[in-house]
What does this fold into?
Amino acid sequence: MSANLEALKDLGAYIVAKFGDEIDGHELINGQLVVTVGPQNLLKLCKFLRDDAQCLFQQVSDICGVDYPDREKRFEVVYNLLSFKHNLRCRVKVNADEDTAVPSVVKIWPAANWFEREVWDMYGVFFADHPDLRRILTDYGFDGHPQRRDFPLTGYVEVRYDDEQRRVVYEPVRLTQEFRSFDFMSPWEGMTPTLPGDEKAEAQKEGDKA
It folds into this structure.
């Protein structure tokens, strides 16, 4: 086992000794320590990981979401942490359902601000005590959360500029035919029997006959 993996193994045992049943589990995955914790113990664990001399994970490199619709707690919020002092990485996972608020870690790592806004925008995970929780990638009037597995590929509305109203308007998406049951013998509304470019193929056929 490499020195890095040995250090992560020891760190995992150290965290378990400090927290016991307050964490849900830990494991080494692809050379990285992964600690799973419930929302109620997230802030306590994060402060420990930032401040304890054996940890010193003073940077949150990224926060992202994952959606598992078949689970009772369908969302995972994943925190990727970096310790410059010990040259180690740690991943913290929190499971939450659609109604469970996850405590914001902005007061621990200010850089988490926009990361949490992105998870809220894309997945709809609410972060309690976030100083400015609003959409960051989609429009403020956007309907739904586009990285949920049950979000339709077409979205719910489409945007266009209306010349008469001189403003952008939102309208429900209208498809003549669903993508998943596309029938090539029944093409989209407005499709002509002859497609652009067909005339070249016909001309080639006539030339071959001659």
